[in-house]
Here is the input.
Amino acid sequence: MPTIVVVVGSFMSRVGFFEATPTWTLKHWQLVFTDAGILKALGTTLILATTAGIVSPILFSLLAYMIVRTHWWGRTILDSASPHP
Here is the structure.
């Protein structure tokens, strides 16, 4: 429900004031999509999310392989430092 209120409120000229003229507007969204800083932040967020989504499984798979399949001296340290469910 809070998400719906935020989305609907983003289309209102003043949130919660249904008597305001005009009640519904796209002015806020036009500002968002024309601001270079917001678009740059969105691009940075997408790059970080994609990188974390690809690198994390690879890194933790290699870590699990080293802990389970090898007999290296530091694997017990890795095992104790990694989170266990």
Summary: The first helix runs from residue 2 to 9. The chain is about 65% helix and 0% strand.
